[in-house]
Design brief:
Elements: E1 2-5, E2 10-15, E3 26-31, E4 35-38, E5 44-54, E6 66-73, E7 76-87, E8 90-103, E9 106-110, H1 114-117, H2 120-126, E10 137-139, E11 142-144, H3 151-162, E12 166-169, E13 174-175, E14 180-188, E15 197-204
Parallel strand pairs: 2-15, 9-12
Antiparallel strand pairs: 1-4, 3-5, 5-14, 6-9, 6-15, 7-8, 8-10, 10-11, 13-14
Length: 205
C-alpha cells in the first residue's frame, strides 16, 4: 500500500496592472484531503480546494474583483516522446525527444480563460497556463524550453492530456462569494504517488 501527500505547500502571488502598486492579500486555503492512500483498486479521486481572500482594505476598494489560477504539479521525472513514421506498412520510431524533470501530473484550474486574466507576457513570466508552463527538453548537448507549438511538446502534452494527467480547466474554479472560492482537482487512476504541490496566483482587477 502506498500513500501520496496530495498537498504540502501553496504559493501565493498577487499581480496588479502595470503602474499599480502590489501588495499581497491574505489567502487562506485548504483541501478536502491532505493525504490519499493508493490501493490496487484505486480508480481516481477528486480533491476539493477551497479558500478565502482577506482583502487589503488600505489599498483595495470594496468592489475589487479577483481572478485565481491554481496550478497543481505532481512528482517530476524525465520522460521521452517519440515520433513514428510508417515504412513498408510498419510504424517505426524515427526520432525522439527527452523532457527533463517535468511534472508527472499538471493541472491548471481558473475561474475564466487564462487569456482573459493576464496578457501573454505575464503568462510567460508567471508561468500560468499549459502553453506557458516550462517543459524543458534535451536538445543535443543543451537543455531548453520550447514554444507551445513545438511538435514534440505538442505531442507530449496531447498524450498526457488524453490520459487525464495534464489538463487546463478554465471554468473549474468558482467564486461562491466575491472572496470565497472552490475548485475540484481530479486525480485519475494513473497518477504517480508522491508529493503534489499547489501554486496559487491571485490577480486583482
Amino acid at each position: 500500500m502506498m500513500a501520496r501527500a496530495s498537498i504540502l505547500a501553496a504559493a501565493l502571488l498577487l499581480f496588479l496592472g502595470a503602474g499599480e502598486s502590489t501588495r499581497a492579500e491574505n489567502l487562506i486555503v485548504s483541501v478536502s484531503n491532505h493525504r490519499i492512500t493508493v490501493t490496487p483498486n484505486y480508480s481516481g479521486e477528486e480533491l476539493v480546494l477551497f479558500g478565502s481572500i482577506e482583502r487589503d482594505s488600505k489599498s483595495k476598494p470594496p468592489g475589487t474583483a479577483y481572478d485565481i489560477v491554481v496550478t497543481v504539479s505532481g512528482p517530476r521525472a524525465d520522460m521521452v516522446t517519440r515520433r513514428k513514421e510508417r515504412k513498408l506498412g510498419i510504424w517505426v520510431n524515427v526520432d525522439s525527444r527527452e523532457f527533463i524533470q517535468v511534472p508527472s501530473y499538471l493541472g491548471i484550474f481558473s475561474n475564466r480563460p487564462i487569456d482573459d486574466i493576464a496578457a501573454p507576457d505575464v503568462q510567460r513570466r508567471q508561468q500560468i497556463g499549459l502553453a506557458s508552463f516550462p517543459l524543458p527538453q534535451r536538445m543535443g548537448p543543451d537543455i531548453a524550453n520550447t514554444v507551445a507549438s513545438d511538435p514534440f511538446r505538442s505531442s507530449f502534452v496531447r498524450l498526457r492530456t488524453e490520459h487525464g494527467l495534464y489538463r487546463e480547466q478554465t471554468s473549474a474554479l468558482t467564486f461562491l462569494t466575491p472572496t470565497l472560492f472552490r475548485t475540484g482537482i481530479p486525480l485519475p487512476a494513473e497518477v504517480t504517488t508522491g508529493t503534489y504541490t499547489i501554486d496559487i496566483k491571485l490577480f486583482a482587477n
